[in-house]
Amino acid sequence: MRVAIAGAGAVGRSIAGELLENGHEILLIDKAPTAISVERVPQAEWLLADACEITSLDEAALQRCNVVIAATGDDKVNLVVSLLAKTEYGVPRVVARVNNPKNEWLFNEAWGVDVAVSTPRLMSALVEEAVSVGDLVRLLRFSHGDANLVELTLPEESALAGTQVGDVEWPEDTSLVTIIRGTRVLTPTRDDSLEAGDELLFVAAQAREEQLEDLLSVRREDSAS
């Protein structure tokens, strides 16, 4: 898979390193000569250019990329890169870094963004995920379909503890994608049972999140009495 990363700072280089280890072809783009540190990621291609300029993206052959990651420290730049990647070059997957949480609302399909990653939001979500039981935690937002990756740790008193996955009437536009049970990562089947303490990961429409949380957190009758 060919991936272009706009922004060769610490974040961009770190992403590049991870993707290279997984066998992907990486191009790092940055307009600052001081950011071009080929020795730090020698396996990657490097391009000294302004990723907001069509001529630069032509030189980068962006149309050959499967993924573009806008990873600069400037939200305006990340939005422009995302829009150009999607509308001018038809890149199938565009991931954009959100630096200022106040700008998060802009990072959507209208700007060519498929996945927006907000570091402050992600950090707060990970803190919530570590300490919350019975509360739905939003981990990641997907622009297409207005869907989110959400997590909930099933509480001891949940009425669904001991219930098979296939017997649960899940809300519409909701999919249980993973059960984390201790050190195990399970791909759920209809016959798997939900257990108290399970970390459940869903892809769910934002409009269904409250309904999903209510379903998972409802108490057994004997616990409520």
TrEMBL record:
Q: Does the keyword Nucleus apply?
A: no
- Which residues does the UniProt record annotate as the domain RCK N-terminal? 1-117
Annotated ranges, domain RCK C-terminal: 137-218
Supply one GO BP term: monoatomic ion transmembrane transport
| Pfam families referenced in this protein's UniProt entry, alphabetically | TrkA_C, TrkA_N
- Tell me if Cell inner membrane is a UniProt keyword of this record: no
List UniProt keywords, sorted A-Z.
Ion channel, Ion transport, NAD, Potassium, Potassium transport, Transport
The record's PROSITE patterns line, in alphabetical order, gives: RCK_C, RCK_N
Q: What is this protein called?
A: Trk system potassium uptake protein TrkA
Q: Which organism is it from?
A: Streptomyces bullii
